[in-house]
C-alpha cells in the first residue's frame, strides 16, 4: 500500500529529500482516490511543515521523539518497556521480516514504527491486519500526541483509520491527561539513574540489525516509493510512485 509507505516516510527523520518533496506529496495526495479521513490529515500535516525551515522541523522532531518515552516511535517501548520480554518480541518480529524476504542492513531496531510500516506495505491483503495488531499502541500514542498539540497526531489518525481501530478516544484522552510528563529535565535525569536492561549475546546479535528499505520486488501489490535527493538528480526530490493502489 503506497499510503503506508508514505506515512512511514513522513514519520521518519525529516531530511532534505523529504522537505523538498513536500509539494509533490501534496500533488500525489490530490491525485489519489482517498477517503477524506485519510487524505485530509495528511494534507494538514504536509501544509504545516511546508511553512518550516528544515532545521526547525528537525529540531521539533528531535524534541518530540527523542525526549522521553511517551510518544516513542518504537512499538515495543509501549508494550514491554525495558523488560527482557522486549528482546524476545524483537527477535520474533525480525523472524517475520525475514520470512517476508526483507533484507537486513541498517542498524535500527525492528519495532521502529516507520520500519514496521514498510513491512506492512509488503504484505498485500494482510497489510491492514498487521497494522490492526498494533492498533492499541497507535491509539495510545495518538492521544498523547493530541495532548501535546503535535501535528504528528494527524499521521496516527490516518493509521488508525486505515486499520479501522475502534477506541474510546475520549476516555483514553482523559487517562493520558493524568499521566506525569516524562520529557522534563527531571524526568529524563531519573531515567538515566535506572540501570539499562541488556539482552543476551544471541539476542544482541539479532536485534542490533534492522531492515533496509524493501525493494520493489518485495512488495506484493505495487512498486516502491522512492525519495530522490535533488543534488543527485536533475529533477527536484519527489515521491516516485508507480504501480497499483
Automatic annotation (TrEMBL):
Gene3D superfamilies for the chain = TorD-like
- Which InterPro entries does this chain map to? DMSO/NO3_reduct_chaperone, NO3_reductase_chaperone_NarJ, TorD-like_sf
Presence of the UniProt keyword Transmembrane helix in the record: no
Please provide the record's keywords in A-Z order. Answer: Nitrate assimilation
UniProt key word Manganese: no
Q: Which domain of life is it from?
A: Bacteria
Q: Which SUPFAM superfamilies match?
A: TorD-like
Q: What is this protein called?
A: Nitrate reductase molybdenum cofactor assembly chaperone
Organism of origin is: Microbulbifer harenosus
Amino acid at each position: 500500500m503506497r499510503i503506508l509507505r508514505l506515512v512511514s516516510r513522513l514519520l521518519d527523520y525529516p531530511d532534505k529529500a523529504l522537505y523538498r518533496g513536500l509539494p509533490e506529496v501534496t500533488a500525489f495526495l490530490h491525485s489519489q482516490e482517498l477517503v477524506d479521513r485519510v487524505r485530509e490529515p495528511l494534507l494538514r500535516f504536509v501544509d504545516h511543515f511546508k511553512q518550516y525551515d528544515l532545521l526547525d522541523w528537525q529540531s521539533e522532531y528531535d524534541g518530540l521523539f527523542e525526549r522521553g518515552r511517551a510518544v516513542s516511535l518504537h512499538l515495543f517501548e509501549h508494550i514491554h518497556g525495558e523488560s527482557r520480554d522486549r528482546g524476545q518480541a524483537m527477535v520474533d518480529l525480525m523472524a517475520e521480516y525475514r520470512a517476508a524476504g526483507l533484507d537486513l542492513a541498517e542498524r535500527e531496531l525492528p519495532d521502529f514504527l516507520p520500519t514496521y510500516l514498510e513491512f506492512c506495505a509488503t504484505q498485500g491483503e494482510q497489510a491492514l491486519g498487521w497494522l490492526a495488531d498494533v492498533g492499541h499502541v497507535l491509539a495510545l500514542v495518538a492521544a498523547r500526541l493530541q495532548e501535546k498539540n503535535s501535528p504528528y497526531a494527524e499521521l496516527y489518525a490516518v493509521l488508525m483509520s486505515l486499520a479501522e481501530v475502534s477506541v474510546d478516544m475520549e476516555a483514553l484522552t482523559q487517562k493520558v491527561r493524568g499521566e506525569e510528563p516524562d520529557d522534563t529535565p527531571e524526568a529524563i535525569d531519573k531515567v538515566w539513574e535506572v540501570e539499562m536492561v541488556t539482552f543476551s549475546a544471541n539476542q544482541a546479535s539479532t536485534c542490533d540489525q534492522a531492515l533496509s528499505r524493501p525493494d520493489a520486488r518485495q512488495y506484493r501489490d505495487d512498486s516502491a516509493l522512492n525519495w530522490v535527493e535533488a543534488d543527485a538528480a536533475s529533477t527536484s526530490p519527489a515521491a516516485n510512485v508507480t504501480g497499483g493502489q
